[in-house]
Prior knowledge:
Strand content: 15-25%
Protein name: S-adenosyl-L-methionine-dependent methyltransferase
Distance between the termini: 25 Å
Strand order of the largest sheet: 3-2-1-4-5-7-6
Oligomer: single chain
Shape: globular
Structural class: alpha/beta
Pfam family, one: Methyltransf_23
InterPro entries: SAM-dependent_MTases_sf
Radius of gyration: 19 Å
Number of helices: 8
Organism: Lojkania enalia
Largest sheet: 7 strands, mixed
Amino acid sequence: MSEEEPYWLAHNATEQQRLTKQHHVWTKAIGYLLHPSIASALPEDARIADIGTGTGIWMTEMAKISPSTYQFDGYDISDAQFPPKDALASNISLNFGDFKKPIPQELQGKYDLINIRLIVISMGVGVWESTLRNVLTLLKPAGAIQWIEGDFFAARGFRGSSSTSSAGHYLTKGQLKLNGTLKGRFGYNFPDFTPMFIEAGLQKVEEDVISTDRLPEQRSDFTEIGIGAVFSGLKNLASTKIEGYWTEDEVKVNREKAIEDMESGAYLRWDLHVTIGFTFPEAAAGTT
């Protein structure tokens, strides 16, 4: 995978709205913004880095329920989704940062917590491990990391409980097409988080896995979010006009069919993974 590979979702108001809804739906399904094992271990003046911050929504929501002495610094490879600075709390900052590359010296050993969410669309074989090694240099000794991702390789459409429901085949078809296209383009894959964290030298590693259909009332919300992500990605990939990719017309037709699946009562489901770990208290920053 090229380090310059672009982000294959949109950068516009519609995508911002989807990301905001996604945040709230995912948080309700998971049951927390911050894993309880980390929340109880943070110091009173915690410094927190949010990687792939996007709109900064995770930091904004965390700041509402955290001590005012916490400092939140969001980093992203693009500022396209950043809200205006005056819309943020005084203890939140937004910054450019590419954490697939070595961390600047001035940021190393600076943070008590790293939060990473939903950067799967830009990841590939070997990139997960190298990114983890990079971001861990941000942490102080006894610092913590929380990484939240969706396993879209496990995603497919299912027939809903309604007698009118389709079997969800077009929901499955769109997801499989995006997965296959991204895998072929740059080795898109999903890691085994627990051994990856352990191999990186982290301790007290925990991994929660939550199915998106666990709460029946959220199935339609997850499906709407999934359709938005899948077909936005496929539309942008269509613009490359590479043989074997769907054309824009094919994306449009299959999106309409996927929406019909959803409206009939079928739903898209996948797994959410929340993995946490801590650096060793005696370790020097950046040596984990």
